[in-house]
TrEMBL record:
SUPFAM superfamilies: RmlC-like cupins (SSF51182). Keywords: Apoplast, Disulfide bond, Manganese, Metal-binding, Secreted, Signal. The keyword Transmembrane helix does not apply. This is Cupin type-1 domain-containing protein. It comes from Leersia perrieri. Oxalate binds at residues 285, 290, 295. Disulfide bonds join 209-224.
Length: 405
């Protein structure tokens, strides 16, 4: 009979297995991290260096849902636009001045920028400390993940998503856009969504909690209607998800019809929604994230090239991609950048997706980065994407339409 130590040798869990409590000592909760010491920023194109202390360096953090980082910024340095798929971040400036911000998902058809100048004093370089609500928060630096994934995302996909020539995409992919830390990248300045990590919908504590859309009370989700006032129509919508949708008016050649709690109040607290996605020939649903949902997608008609990019595990944004045919299923993990592209120049495609949130949100990368209201500083974006400010100004002047209807 196989011994337990052999059987469990290669076991993998979400997080790490626990040591025997009898073998634990104070050193498991300690690291001489020297977070008081300035770090080198000279070797970074972005002029920043992130020193992250997570569960990989401090095993006592396992299951405790927190980590910490020091961020050093050279004069005019930045930590470029990014997301943390598994963490909310709280940030404090120790020295210097920082311009910081985040961009919302497309609530009310607008990627709104919330930004602020943070001060400690007029001292350069700048230093900050961030705490994050995950033992291993992950980081997706937008420029790295989109243009530096391994293998690269198709230039057909990115040219349509960013509305530029394929030659521009090929040039950007050849730049070897690098991470801002020589240690393990954690990005902490311009998170594209502040409510990502460990996000989940309110749990149901009764059979249902139909959303009261007219209540003046604001909670995470919606208040519940009186159960005595609930009827079957609260759980029904004539959504016509069997009907083809218009893709001709979309620059990217797709149309997403989402049924979430805003259209179907019975979904409140139930943690699920559904969408139909129509793709024109050579149409795509461009690189985007859902800050509050994992997505499972099945192809109803046609063929789709799909993929997602990991956070920078082992200092690499790895692309997982696949060509899907009718009837195939693919999963996009919560918070990760993903896309779908119809490679057929003659035939449309159709897919249905279920999402693990009553209101999953969507952050279309090009729209959020170049079309936020108000715009992100062109100084920030020029350094993040390693291009001239004139290129950024041109991109920000384009009309970044929403393909969610």
């Amino acid at each position: 009979m196989e011994h337990n130590s052999v059987r469990y040798k290669n076991m993998r869990v979400n997080g790490f297995p626990c040591l025997n409590p009898m073998d634990v000592n104070a050193d498991h909760f300690f690291k001489a991290a020297m977070l008081d010491k300035p770090k080198n920023t000279k070797d970074s194109k972005f002029g920043s260096n992130v020193t992250l202390i997570n569960v990989m360096q401090l095993p006592g953090l396992n299951t405790l849902g927190i980590s910490i980082a020091r961020i050093d910024y050279a004069p005019l340095g930045e930590n470029p636009p990014h997301t943390h798929p598994r963490a909310t971040e709280i940030f404090t400036v120790l020295e210097g001045t920082l311009y910081v911000g985040f961009v919302t998902s497309n609530q009310n058809n607008m990627n709104k920028l919330f930004s602020k100048v943070l001060n400690k004093g007029d001292v350069f370089p700048a230093v900050a400390v961030a705490a994050l609500s995950s033992q291993n928060p992950g980081a997706i630096t937008i420029a790295n993940a989109v243009f530096g994934s391994k293998p690269p995302i198709s230039d057909d996909v990115l040219a349509k998503a960013f509305q530029v020539e394929k030659g521009t995409i090929d040039w950007l992919q050849a730049q070897n856009i690098m991470a801002s830390s020589s240690f393990l990248l954690l990005a902490t300045l311009l998170a594209l969504a502040s409510w990502q990590g460990m996000a989940s919908d309110p749990s149901p504590l009764q059979d249902f909690c139909v959303a009261d859309m007219h209540s003046p009370v604001r909670v995470n989700g919606f208040p519940c209607l009186n159960p005595m006032d609930v009827n079957a129509d609260h759980f029904f919508k004539a959504a016509m998800l069997d009907t083809p949708k218009n893709t001709k008016d979309s620059k990217v050649g797709s149309n997403v019809t989402l049924i979430n709690v805003m259209q179907l109040p019975g979904l409140n607290t139930l943690g699920i929604s559904i969408a139909r996605i129509d793709y024109a020939p050579l149409g795509e649903n461009p690189p985007h994230t859902h800050p509050r949902a994992t997505e499972i997608l099945t192809v109803l008609e046609g063929t789709l090239y799909v993929g997602f990019v990991t956070s920078n595990q082992n200092n690499m944004n790895k692309l997982f991609s696949k060509v899907l045919n009718k009837g195939d299923v693919f999963v996009f993990p919560v918070g990760l950048i993903h896309f779908q592209f119809n490679p057929n120049p003659h035939q449309p495609a159709v897919a249905i997706a279920a999402l693990s949130s009553q209101n999953p949100g969507v952050i279309t990368i090009a729209n959020a980065v170049f079309g936020s209201t108000p715009p992100i500083s062109d100084d920030v974006l020029a350094k993040a994407f390693q291009v001239e400010k004139g290129t950024i100004d041109w991109l920000q002047a384009q009309f970044w339409e929403n393909n969610h209807y």
